[in-house]
Amino acid sequence: MTSVFLLTLRQLSGKWRLAIMAILATLPVLFTALIVRSGTAPSVAEFEVIVLSTMLAGSIAPLIIVSIASVAFANEIEDRTLANLTLSPIPRWQIVVPKLAAAVAVAAPFIAGSAFLTSHLAFNQDITATFAVTVSALVGLLMYASVFVWLGLVTRQAIGVGLLYIVLWEGFFSGYVSGIRFLSIRHYATALMHGIDPRRFAEGQHVNFGIAAVVALTIVLVFTALSTRRLRRMDVP
Amino acid sequence: MSTQPSPVIRVDHVSRWFGSVVAVSDVTFDIRPGITGLLGPNGAGKTTLLRMMTGLADVSDGSVTMFGEPVRDNPALYGRIGVMSEHETVYSFMKGREFVRMMGRLRGVKDLDAATERAIELVDLVDAAALPMGTYSRGMRQRMRLAGTLVHDPEVLILDEPLNGADPRQRVHFQSLLRRLADGGRTIVLSSHILEEVEQVAETVLLIVNGKLAASGGFRAIRAALDKRPYHVRVVSDSPREMAAAVVRLPSVEAVNVDPDGAIIVLCNNVRDLQVELPRLAQAASISLRRVEPLDDSLESVFGYLVER
Prior knowledge:
The structure holds two protein chains of two kinds. Chain A is mostly helical. Chain A contains ten helices and no strands. Chain A has one domain. Chain B has a six-stranded mixed β-sheet with strand order 6-7-8-3-9-10, sandwiched between helices. A four-stranded antiparallel β-sheet of chain B has the order 2-1-4-5, with helices on one face. Chain B has two domains: 216 residues, 3-Layer(aba) Sandwich (Rossmann fold); 81 residues, Alpha-Beta Plaits. In chain B, helix 3 packs across helix 4, helix 3 runs parallel beside helix 5 and helix 4 packs across helix 5. Chain B is elongated, with a radius of gyration of 24 Å. Chain B is an alpha/beta fold. Chains A and B meet through helix 1 and helix 5 of A and helix 2 and helix 3 of B.
């Protein structure tokens, strides 16, 4: 599994990709710094909706992840080197899991760094709130990554489909149609944040921490299993 | 009494279609140890067939087995197979030695250092092993990919157009390497669209045309069948009717047609005979020959002939 992990890590660590991710990850931090300095600071609930939920969890984090996770397999399908891995005498899950781990490892410093600095600035160095935001961002990353890795295996337009999902589903429908929120990754990521620090994030309707954690784990396991199944059944170019 | 070794690969009534396009149609054959050439024109279905033989692609109908086991979704079997696809893409950021090592590790090679060096030496690329593969020539990339295919010393080698991009010296080296590997008891399947390329190494040939198995067997038998095939030859002269009247009397000529553009199309079953007799006939009848050209020299027409037989 180490070979697949290291190979994927190198494949996903292109300079341009890392530079774009760094720029994206910086945006919420800059935005928060401007808010804090402006003197007209929003309430915690407003900040959560505008910056943490919509900007970080609903846009920046999934954009970073879709650009990484959806190409974890798609690039090798495109350049036809995936056969080097699939013709190895190892179970398919031992290809999927290190690929997912590599996608998470590349995206995690940017997302965790962005979440940490944003919440650190916004909540005046409150450790619990910062921890809640950072952990929920990382769990959200894991959920998104497992979905987008699978997407990269099922369609050659994974980035396009992923962007549509982020913009339409996570960004638009889940914000306006309450029933859809329960099918939104962002919803469960922010529910975890509420569960870890209920004192700070007390407002709004969210599922409780236990359910959010179980759903997060289920999403990761189900999509990892779907990716493994897809890799077993697909025609490898 | 000599006994044939038992088949290593068994392709049984295999078909593959993509929507309404049939890429491979009801193909059946066995492959035994030694070198087998899979020959056919571009687009004949060779690569699709090889991909089904390695488990990379599923069959629409029929079955493929190797060592008696199904090849599809059978990772345990892949440790015994070495596959080199026709695509020449490499990990350009990776050095040659790193690539071969990675392939060895993925295939569970025990003594990785020794196996890596042995594979690189086999393809004669020791000097370039420390360079990134992105800097390699096409031929070097192919050879390093072959090293990656050989690193785990597989019992079965499946090579799709492996000589693409190889220069004449590399071809000779590669062919001698294949013979050595085959002499060691391995089963090697080599695909090509070039007749001579396969002829030089393969003991057995499978001819694939339009997704069907057109012929199979020893190379001599297939060559003999090719030599007997009738050829169309286009002859342009200043007196086509007189030329046609003279040519039709030759015993090797089966038919002569005069084209509206003034050329004659000769169907003969012995081109060498026609080559000798044409100038003599033209001289005797005071006819000026302007152009003589064979019309059936493409590989497609050779294969087409074999399919129709």
